[in-house]
Write a structure and sequence with these properties.
Elements lengths: L6 H7 L6 E6 L7 H8 L3 E5 L7 H14 L3 E4 L5 H9 L4 E4 L5 H11 L25 H11 L1 E6 L2 H5 L1 H5 L6 E4 L1 H7 L9 H16 L3 E6 L2 H10 L3 E6 H20 L1
Parallel strand pairs: 1-2, 1-8, 2-3, 3-4, 4-5, 5-6, 6-7, 7-8
Helix pairs in contact: 2-3, 4-5
Length: 264
């Protein structure tokens, strides 16, 4: 069986106790980004298609950069459309993050698009990027099983319906992680940015509890490392320290402030 390098690692981390720390890529799809993050201690990265305008040509390139660094890559697809999910996985991504999953029916449709037979109906094209272009002659079924086993499915809980269905969704075989879409959750509740609102806190607790109950992972994006550490205390085991844009801005702004103070 062909080795998938980092591909064997991401799904093995799901539901484990140690904290997994990564970041989002919204802008810097550069050749060195995987090795830069890996050298800094990142354990995963999420390439965002939902809010960036990145297309699949960019995804294909970043997958290769991450493979060179042996750093697992999740692609946040722009929708629940079947072709977005399956194409992201066909590029060789280790997993997909799917937005606004609010019901068991929606979760099942995601799994159907992401998994090969008998777990789903993902279209078959083998020997390509997701198999590292290996020249293989094994029968289809074990290769289907290999891909199904390596593909991490991360569903975003972003509205009250999703939080209410979190337990049922997390119980589904093939669902690996619930990721709280915190901003969209507050907007859906009619309280934009109210992260201390009782309804938001209830939804967050329900999401984390559902993941833990079923041996799955819970994830959330933090604005900085301090907030990420707080999220770990809440029960999240996957945390993203901001994203590439904000990490650069925060570091540069802190440097500017230091110099201004020293020269005043």
């Amino acid at each position: 069986m062909a080795s998938n390098g980092a591909s064997n690692g991401l799904r093995a981390l799901v539901g484990t106790q140690p904290t997994k720390i990564g970041t989002f890529l919204f802008e810097f799809a550069t050749p060195g980004i995987g090795q830069i993050l890996k050298a800094a201690g990142a354990e995963f990265a999420v390439l965002d298609m939902e809010h960036t305008g990145f297309g699949f040509d960019t995804v294909r390139q970043v997958v290769r950069y991450m493979q060179a660094a042996n750093l697992p890559l999740v692609v946040r697809v722009p929708s629940q459309s079947r072709h977005h999910i399956s194409r992201a996985l066909d590029t060789g991504a280790d997993g997909v993050m799917v937005p606004i999953v609010s019901s068991v029916e929606q979760a099942r449709a995601v799994l159907d698009a992401a998994k090969y037979w008998p777990d789903g109906t993902r279209g078959v094209a083998l020997g390509l990027a997701h198999e590292r272009f290996a020249m293989r002659s094994e029968p289809l079924l074990p290769r289907f099983a290999e891909q199904n086993a390596r593909t991490a499915i991360i569903l975003q809980v972003e509205d009250p319906r999703g939080a209410a269905a979190a337990d049922e969704i997390a119980a589904m075989p093939g669902v690996d992680m619930l990721w709280l879409g915190h901003n969209d959750m507050t907007v859906a509740m009619g309280e934009p940015g109210a992260f201390d609102h009782p309804d938001f806190l209830t939804a967050e607790k329900a999401t984390i509890a559902a993941a833990k109950k079923h041996g799955k992972s819970a994830g959330r994006l933090a604005v900085d490392a301090k907030q990420a550490a707080h999220f770990v205390k809440l029960g999240y085991d996957f945390v993203s320290i901001a994203g590439d844009v904000w990490l650069l801005q925060q570091a540069f702004a802190a440097g500017v402030e230091t110099i201004r103070k020293a020269s005043s």
